[in-house]
Design a protein that fits this description.
This protein has helices at 3-12, 36-46, 62-75, 79-90, 99-107, 119-127, 170-176, 178-181, 189-200, 213-236, 255-260, 262-270, 281-306, and strands at residues 19-23, 110-113, 136-139, 153-156, 159-160, 165-166, 202-206, 249-254, 273-278. By secondary structure, it is α/β, with parallel strands linked by helices. It is globular.
């Protein structure tokens, strides 16, 4: 295991109760649920728009392509058709889960995800099949910090297709990330929630590629506002301790992704997100196992010292 992995484990083993996993599509790989490209392809099968080849679309163009499909349905008075197609592909309450998801749920009680599919819930039922544990589940646009005081929680940051409230097309992103889009009519509920977990908890990003520029820029904006707040308080309040001094988050990223995006690691570091590079998924799965082992040892030692 890489030395930086062990260093972070040592640091987190003393306060794992604040750890929240921020999960992207990578943790659901292998479940068979639809990814972005499959969802777009399903829309394309229903209504083919000239000059769009889904297989050649770059990831940063996905929301724009989704917007084109939605606009087409809207012009025909068939917005429900747009959502019905997506719901058919995402209706996976009983979808299989992965060992990666199980390892995450063994390590933390709280998961935030930008995924629409619900395989984490299946993994939770499997992991807690012999007890009465029940997670608190919330979706955009109703995001509350209160769920983080619940025993277990899942936060679907980009919404639920069942409520017809999801962040998928460009207009959705612009509406729910107003600090990025400068949309004065947008809702700040998502970014307020993100600001809270960024400030009060330790985030570990897993299976999240950071190609979602709205999330990256939102984190950068949150960091910038906190930095400005710290600078002002240091100027006028003697003995003030900067909030940013106590903030550090982590992101597992595949080494090849870092190589292909040289600036990403630097941008994340400036936003107080330390990148942990890995070669294979099993590397970060092992990290979660080691963190649990180290935490148990630290807890036993603390109990022994209290006797």
């Amino acid at each position: 295991m890489a030395p930086e992995f062990e260093t972070v484990i040592e640091r987190l083993s003393k306060g794992r109760e604040d750890l929240i996993v921020f999960a992207g599509g990578g943790v659901a790989t292998g479940t068979g649920v639809a990814d972005w490209k499959e969802l777009l392809r399903s829309l394309d099968e229903k209504v083919q728009i000239n000059h769009i080849d889904i297989d050649r679309v770059e990831e940063n163009q996905y929301p724009d392509i989704a917007q084109k499909f939605f606009d087409h349905f809207s012009q025909q008075g068939q917005e429900n058709c747009y959502y019905n197609i997506l719901e058919d592909k995402l209706n996976t309450i009983d979808s299989p889960h992965t060992t990666m998801q199980t390892e995450i749920l063994k390590t933390t009680n709280h998961v935030i995800t930008t995924n629409f599919e619900r395989s984490f819930e299946t993994a939770f039922k499997y992991h807690h099949e012999n007890d009465l544990a029940c997670p608190c589940i919330q979706y955009l646009p109703s995001l509350s910090q209160a769920v983080l005081f619940h025993g277990f929680s899942f936060t679907y940051l980009h919404g639920s297709i069942h409520a017809r409230a999801i962040i998928f097309k460009r207009a959705d992103y612009d509406s729910y990330y107003p600090s990025v889009s400068s949309n004065s009519n947008g809702s700040d509920v998502l970014e307020q929630f993100l600001r809270h977990v960024y400030t009060a908890h330790i985030l570990v990003f897993v299976g999240f590629s950071f190609r979602d520029t709205y999330v990256v820029r939102s984190l950068e904006n949150i960091h910038a506002r906190l930095r400005l707040n710290d600078e002002r308080n240091l100027q006028f309040h003697h003995g003030y301790r900067p909030l940013l001094d106590n903030i550090q988050h982590y992101a597992f990223l595949k080494r090849s992704d870092i190589t292909n995006s040289a600036q990403l690691k630097e941008r994340l570091a400036l936003a107080k997100v330390q990148v942990l590079e890995y070669e294979q998924h099993k590397d970060w799965v092992l990290w979660f196992k080691r963190l649990r082992e180290r935490t148990r040892k630290a807890s036993l030692l603390a109990d022994a010292l209290d006797i």
